[in-house]
Amino acid sequence: MKQENWYDVDSLRNKDYAMSTAFPALMRKVFVWMTLALAITGLTAYGVATSPTILSLIFSSKVTFFGLIIAEFALVFAISGAINRLSLSTATLLFILYSVINGATLSTIFFAFSVATIGKVFFITAGTFGAMALVGYTTKTDLTSMGKLLFMALLGIIIASVVNIFVGSSGLDLILSYVGVLVFVGLTAYDTQKIKQMCQAAPDAGESAQKLALIGALSLYLDFINLFLYLLRIFGNNRD
Question: Which residues have C-beta within 8 Å of that of residue 135, sequence separation ≥ 6?
Fold first, then answer.
């Protein structure tokens, strides 16, 4: 009887050890995947912007451009909604594909802003993102309620932005940019905390846990990109 109890205790210790080693490995994967995706997007955007042939292929036809936009939404929903049915390799390839397509559509920023301005805003974004990710990782406060409010605010921004396409108010656009920065600053902290909790609950670093880490990387990637774009609209000096 004592031998059986000793075996149970030993098993629990092994399980705790597996969880403690899985957590940092999964968190590293989240930020490595996010960083690689950002690098792919940046290189693609610059490559497209400096290639007249690719630019003509993408932007000479509204069908092609909006087709890429639709493909982006489709990929995000496919990765998020079907992650349990996808293999890790397939989900990773879809994430890479999304990063490439997003880079192609974001290539337009090189025509609206100088490279120096884009670089400056990128470093501002990286610093802000890093600080808020640290807050989300270290805070003891439950950010769930804040997250719900932020998602409601994000929905409001989307609706107001669609309306402003027809109104064309530069003042409203600036206000939405400031609100957008606040929303994605908050979402960065909220998503980081949620990802941390998710990785802590993972029993090991197997494929299922790694797929969840990939979803986490996608969430933080989207937070970073949107924060960058809103800051660019605020601080960027338009070439015109």
Answer: 189, 192
Length of the chain equals 240
Which stretches does DSSP call E strand in 3-95? none
Residue whose C-alpha is closest to residue 129's, from 191, 174, 213, 173: 191
Task: Tell me whether residue 166 is in a domain.
Answer: yes
Predicted TM-score of the model (pTM): 0.86
Structure-block tokens of residue 130 = 């890093």
Number of structural domains, the chain?
1
Alpha carbon distance 97, 21 (integer Å) = 30
In whole angstroms, give the CA distance from residue 115 to residue 48: 14
- Interatomic CA distance for residues 79 and 90, integer angstroms: 9
Q: Sign (positive/negative) of CA torsion 202, 224, 126, 133? A: negative
What does DSSP assign to residue 84?
T
How many other CB atoms are there within 10 angstroms of residue 28's CB atom? 13
Per the model's pLDDT, the better-predicted residue between 153 and 203 turns out to be 153
Task: Report the pLDDT value the prediction gives residue 107, as an integer from 0 to 100.
Answer: 93
Domain of residue 15: give its range: 2-235
What percent of the chain is predicted at pLDDT more than 90?
A: 58
Q: If pLDDT is split at 50, 70 and 90, which confidence band does 19 have? A: low
Q: Is residue 240 part of a domain?
A: no
